[in-house]
Structures are given as structure tokens and as C-alpha cells.
Amino acid sequence: MTYKCFDVSIENKIAHIVMNRPEKRNAMIAEFWTELPEIIRDIDAGSKARVIVISSTGPVFSAGIDLSMFGSDMSMDKNHPHAGLNFLQNNVGPLQDSFTAIEKCRIPVLAAIQGGCYGGGVDLITACDMRYGTEDSFITIYEIIVGMVADVGTFPRILNHMPEGVVRELAYTGRKMHADECKSRGLFNDVYADQEAMMKAVMETAAEIAARPPLAVHGCKHIISYARDHSTQDTLDQIAVWNMSMLIPSEMMEAMQAKGQKREGKFADLPQLKSFGSSKS
Fold first, then answer.
1. Domain 6-210 is of which CATH architecture?
2. Which of 50, 47, 20 lies closest to 36 in space, CA to CA?
3. How far is residue 35's CA from residue 175's CA, in Å, rounded to a whole number?
4. What CATH number belongs to 214-264?
């Protein structure tokens, strides 16, 4: 399948989704918002991989939403109080759903960030399970600079990673938070000298995850997300239900035998999701 905004490859149970418009600073045009959830859901529904890595090309990870998407609304009299609002009111839900697809995906999604990560790029990476950056990378909640409130997912998710006061500062000022601070604040898992070193390390982490029992990894992702949004007791009850319903003794036995014999485990892939519809190859 060919996409306008992405290159997709799958090897050794790892799906690699690469933003491929460096000449446009990987700005998020209309096709981006339909292609990304389609790719994510297709990989997940077809159990085509056990881990997804999202990376980018060029000096900038993403310049965020392409303002050309606002179309005629943005060509209105800029002094009109509702210029651009029609687009936002009619489209914000689908845009939000594009990144929610990452969070709802059964398998882990890792983001590898180089250079600048602006606006919608921050929405994207905060929906991922883990984030890694190059030394020259930074994030900026850029929406405030153009008189907007970030509305595609940054605020409900970034608060899971950084203190409220820090988030408020970034949101109110639009300042850049560089890689070292992103790591010290808890947003980035790690930082690397350059993109080559980062991608090597991220792919090694992805391979380690891909070697684990997929159903157990899915269970961990589900329970961690559930715990974030629920009380301790509710989460304990959910874990009990999950293990009673999903625990597979043969997978546990294989995991222990593989560890004892110092070999790779032979685990079943996640079941395909028939409700997704026709799964593209």
C-alpha cells in the first residue's frame, strides 16, 4: 500500500512508520489524518507486527498541522472573530481520533524524535507508549503562538508525563523544551547523540518487546492505561478479570522454557480483529 505522508515497512515483527515529507517539514496535511489511523489499525487488526515505531525524516520531526487544511476559512478576513473556526468545529473530533488510534492500538508504539516537534507533533508523541529523542530535538506546544488552544490530545496526555506547573508554562508561553529537559521531566525515555544512534537503540528496544508474549504485552498496555484513568482498587479488579480471562498457561510455560534454554520464545500472535473489515496488505 502506498501512502502520501508515510513509508511503512514490517520486518522481524516490527512495523516502522516513517513520515516522508521532509521538504515540507513533515507538516500534517489532510491525508496525514486519514492515513495514520488507517495504518495503525491495519497493523493491529491484522496482527502484522508486535511493535510499531514511528519516526521521521529531515531536520524536523514535524512542523505540526499544515495551516492549508483550514482552507477557505483561513482566507477569510483575518479580523473576523470566527475566521478558521468552522474548520475546527467540524473536524477536531476526527483529528483527535487519529491519535487516539495509537493509544487504543493493542501493541506498543514507540516514537523516535529528531529536531523540532511542533504543535500536532506533540499531540502525536504523547499518544505513544514511549518517546526517544536526539540531542537536538525539542518540543513546543506551538498553538499558543498562533492564538489557539492545543486540541488534538496534548493536554490530557502530557499531564501523565510531566508536572502540571511545567505543562502550564509550556502551554502559556509556547517555549521550546529541549531534549535534556524532556528527559529530566519524564517525557523522553532517553536521548541520543544523533538520529542514527537513536534509531539503533529504539529498534533494539522494539526487538526486545517483540520477543515477549504478545498477549501479555497487550495486557500490560491495557492495564497501564486503565490504571492511569482509574482508582487503585478498580485497577486491581480489572487485572484480576484480565488474568482470569486472558492468561494462557502454555504461553507462560513457553516463556519459562525459552528463558531456561536461552532461546527465543515461540509465542502466538494476537488474534486478528475481524470487526476491522477488509485488512489491506
1. Alpha-Beta Complex (3.90)
2. 20
3. 30
4. 1.10.12.10
d(C-alpha 127, C-alpha 99), whole Å: 6
Residue among 42, 66, 123, 251 flagged as catalytic: 123
Q: Which three cell numbers stand for residue 165?
A: 506547573
Instruction: Give the CA-trace dihedral at 105, 132, 93, 38, to 10 degrees.
Output: -50
- 168-179 pLDDT tens trace: 999 999 999 999
Active site residue 73: no
Q: What is the DSSP letter of 60?
A: -
Convert the pLDDT of each residue in 112-132 to its tens digit.
Answer: 999 999 999 999 999 999 999
Please state the pTM of the whole predicted model: 0.90
Active site residue 237: no
> Which one of 35, 42, 66, 143 is the catalytic residue?
143
Pinpoint the alpha helices (H) of the chain.
30-45, 71-74, 85-104, 120-126, 154-158, 164-173, 179-185, 195-210, 214-229, 232-246, 249-261
The pLDDT of 55-72, averaged and rounded, is 87
Read off the pLDDT of residues 241-280 as tens digits, 9 standing for 90 and up. 999 999 899 999 999 999 999 999 999 999 999 865 544 4
Give the Å distances, CA to CA, from 106 to 38, 80, 91, 132: 14, 44, 26, 20
Active site residue 144: no
Using alpha carbons only, what angle is made at residue 181 by residues 177 and 184, rounded to the nearest 5 degrees?
Answer: 145
pLDDT tens digit sequence for 188-223: 999 999 999 999 999 999 999 999 999 999 999 999
Domain ranges of the chain: 6-210, 214-264
pLDDT given at position 70: 67
196 is catalytic: no
Give the Cα-Cα-Cα angle 26, 84, 116 (nearest 5 degrees): 25
